[in-house]
Predict the structure.
Amino acid sequence: MENTYYDLILEAEMGDTEAQLVLSLLYEQDGNYTEAAKWCEMAARQGDADAQNRMGIYYASGQGVEQDDAKSFYWYSEAADRKNSAAQCNLGYCWLNGIGVEASPENAFYWYEQAALLGDSQAQIQLGYLCSHGIGTTQDYAAAIRWYQMAADVGDADAMVDLGLLYDEGWAPKKTAARRSDSGNRRQSWGTCRPSTT
C-alpha cells in the first residue's frame, strides 16, 4: 500500500490528472481539505471537468480554500463548458440564486436544460419546477410534466412526488391519470441540486 501511495504522489507530481484527482479524493476522505483542494486544483487547471466542478464546490463551501462565490462560479463555468452535467446543474443554481453572478432565471433555465439533456435527473426536476412556475421561461405545465416524467422514469423519488402534485392539481393529461401519485405534503424543488459531484 505504501508503494502504491508513493507512486500515486509521483504520478500526480508529474502532472497525471487522474492521479491528482484520486489524491484529492483521498485527502478529502481523511478530512484534509487543504491538500484535497491543492491536488484538485492541479487537475482542474489542466482541464479535468470533474476536478473543475469539485473546485467550484470547494469555493462554494469554503472547504480547503477561502469561500469565494465568484471563483466557485468560475470553476462551475469551466466544467459546464466541458459538458459536465453536475457543473451545469450547479451553474444553473448559481444563476437562479445570484451566487457569484447577478441572478438570471433565463440563464439558469439554459444551464439546467443543458444538464437535463445529458440525463441529469436533478436538472430535470429543476426544469419541471421552473416550467410549472414560469421562472426563466413561459409557464408550461405540459413541459413541466415532461421534465418531471423524465426524472421519474429513472427512479427519482423527488420527481415522482412533484409529478404527483401536478397530477393532483389537475394538470396531468387525461390519458396519464393512471400514473397519479398520492402525496401528503408539498415541497419546493428550488435549488435542490447544489452541490452536485456526479
